[in-house]
Amino acid sequence: MDNPQLHVMQQADASRTDGSRAEAPRADAHSGGNGHNPPPAPSPTPGALPSAPPSVSAAVERARNFGNSLLRPPQPMPRLPLAAAGERRYAQIVGWGMQVPDKVITNQDLEQIVDTTDDWIRDRTGIEERHVAADPRETSATLGAAAARKALEVADVHPSRVNVIMCATSSPEHTFPSTGSIIQDLIGADNAGAFDLSAACSGFVYALSLARGMILAGDAEYILVVGTETLSRIVDWTDRGTCVLFGDGAGAVLVAASDVPGGVLAVELGSDGSGGNTLILPAGGSAMPASLETVSGGNHYIKMDGKAVFRFATKVMAEATQKVVARAGLTLDDVDLVVPHQANRRIIENSVLRQLKIPAEKCFINVQKYGNTSTASIPIALCEAIEEGKVKPGDKLVFVGFGAGLTWAACALEWSVPVGKRPEDNWWQQTRRQATYQAAAYRSMWKKAVRRVYDMLPTDPEASPAPPPSREPGK
Ligand code: ACO
Fold it and tell me: Structural domain boundaries of the chain?
C-alpha cells in the first residue's frame, strides 16, 4: 500500500457515502429531510402566509413552529453498513492532537505554596513542572476542542463527518451537559453524537475501546476520542500530597473505519470498586450534595491515599499489559512502544520496566513536563512520541492506564498510518479551516439567539407539543 493513511480515509469515505445513500429514503420517510439538511420550515417567509388576516395566536403558533423547525435536533445517526463488499473493518487512529495551557508551574513555584521541595517531588514522582489553566476562559471543553481540531487537521477530515465524540474526563465542565457536547458545539461537529465517559485516568483507553467496538459493529466511520482535564480546579492547593502531582491538558485521536488490517487489536478493561475510597472527590454528587459544610470541609477537592493507589497501580499496569498483549496474539518482545498513563515515574519504572522487563527505550515517559493529566496523559504522550519519531507504521503499541474507581485499562494496537510532518497548509486550506470554525461559532450563536426569541413567545398550554424526533425500533 503506497499511502495507508490515504487508503484508510478513502475507505472510510466510501463506506460513509454508501451508508448515507442507503439511509436517505428512511430518514426522509420520518422527517421530510435527509437527516443533514434542515427540514423545510412551515411558512417561514411572508409570501407563504395565508391570505386572511392572521390572528395573534396564529402568528404566535407560526412563530413557534418556525422556532421548532430551527431547534429540531439533528436526525439520529444513520446505522451504517459494514465495510463495503464484506470487507473486515479495523479501527485505525488517523489523527492526533494535544493542547496544554501556556502557564507552567514548576516545583520551585510549589515550594512557595506548600511545604515541599523540588528534590522530594523529582525523587518521589519524577515530575518537574506542570501546565495549569490560569485563564478562567480555558476549560476542559476549550482544551479538548483545541486538541480535537488538531486531530481533525492531521487527518484532514471535516468536523461534519465525525459520527461520535467520546470525551473522557475527570474534571468535566458540569455534571451535565456533557463536556463532549460542548466540544461538539465548539468544533461544529453537527452530525455527531457526544457524551462523557467517567473512568478517571483509565477513561481515554476505555473510550478508545468503545470507539473500536462501534467501528467494528459498523455503527460509525469517524469517532473523536478526547481526554481532557482542568484538574487544577479540583485540586486542594494546600494539600502537598496531591497538589504536586496533577496538571491540565488535553489530547485527542480520530479513529476511522478502515479495511487496512491493524489499528486497535485488543482491549483489557477492569474495575475494583472496593477501592473507590482510595481516590475520590467526595462531594458534589448525589451521595454528598453541595452544601456549606461540604465546601468548608474541602470535600470538593481530590482526596487520595497515595500509598494504596501506588501499590494498586504497579500491580495492575503490569498485569493489564500482559493480558492485552496476549489477547492480541503478541508477546512482550513484539511490543515496540508502551505508552503508559503518566502518574508517577516510579510507578512506570516498577511496573513496565522492572516487572515486565521492557527496555526503557520502548517505554515513553513525559511525566516530568506535564505531571498527571489524568485522561489526557496517554494521548498527550502519544502525540509527543509521534513528534519524537518513536512511532512508525507497522509498530505494535500498548496504551495502559489506571485510575480512580479503582479502574484499569489497556489496549494493544498496530500503528498503520504514516507519521511524517504534514506539508504546511496553503493559504486556501488555512482560510477554509478558519471559515469552518467561524461558521460553527456563528451557527451556535444563531441557535442560541433563536432559543431566546422562542422563550419570549407566550406559551399556550393547550398547544400540542412538538413531535418527538422519529425513532426506529431497535435504534
Ligand atoms: N513534599 C514533601 N514531603 C511530602 C510530600 C510533598 N509533596 N507529600 C508527602 N510528603 C511526605 C509525607 O508526609 C511523608 O512524610 P512522613 O513520613 O513524615 O509522614 C513522606 O513524604 C512520605 O510520604 P509517602 O506518602 O510515603 O510518599 P510516597 O513515596 O508514597 O509518595 C506519592 C507519595 C507521590 C503520592 C505516591 O504515593 C504516589 O504517587 N501514589 C500514586 C498516586 C497516583 O498516581 N494518583 C493518581 C491516580 S490516577 C487518577 O485517577 C487521578
Answer: 90-414
The widest CA-to-CA distance across the chain, in whole angstroms, is 84
> Would you say the CB of residue 177 lies under 6 angstroms from ligand 1?
no
Strand partners, 91: 257
- What is the 234 CA–ligand 1 centroid distance (Å)? 18
Place of cell 475501546: 209
For the segment 21-61, what is each residue's pLDDT rounded down to a tens digit? 333 333 333 333 333 333 333 333 333 333 434 455 676 67
Residue 268 half-sphere exposure, CB side, CA atoms within 13 Å?
23
Is 341 one of the annotated active-site residues of the chain?
A: yes
75 lines ligand 1 (CB under 6 A): no
Ligand 1 mean position to 296 CA, how many Å? 24
Whether 372 is a known active-site residue: answer yes
Confidence of residue 1 (pLDDT cuts 50, 70, 90): very low
**Among protein residues, the one whose CA lies closest to atom 12 of ligand 1:** 241
Instruction: Using pLDDT thresholds of 50, 70 and 90, give the confidence band for residue 218.
Output: very high
Does the CB atom of residue 201 touch ligand 1 within 6 A?
Answer: yes
What is the whole-number distance in angstroms between the Cα of residue 335 and the centre of ligand 1?
31
Q: What is the DSSP string of 338-360?
A: EEE--S-HHHHIIIIIIIS---G
Three state DSSP letters for 177-227: CCHHHHHHHHHCCCCCEEEEECCHHHHHHHHHHHHHHHHHCCCCCEEEEEE
- Is the CB of residue 340 below 6 angstroms from any atom belonging to ligand 1? no
Model confidence over 423-435: pLDDT tens digits?
777 888 889 888 9
Catalytic residue among 167, 201, 383, 411: 201
Mean confidence (pLDDT) of the chain? 85
240 lines ligand 1 (CB under 6 A): yes
Q: What spacing in Å lies between the alpha carbon of 426 and ligand 1's midpoint?
A: 49
The pTM is what? 0.83
How confident is the model over 440-463, as pLDDT tens digits? Answer: 999 999 999 999 888 888 776 566
| Residue pointed to by grid coordinates 496533577 | 246
* pLDDT of 426: 83
Residues 90-414: name the CATH superfamily: Thiolase/Chalcone synthase (3.40.47.10)
Residues 6 or more apart whose CB falls under 8 angstroms from that of 247 comprise 100, 130, 131, 132, 229, 231, 232, 370, 371, 372, 373
Distance CA 252, CA 198 (A): 16
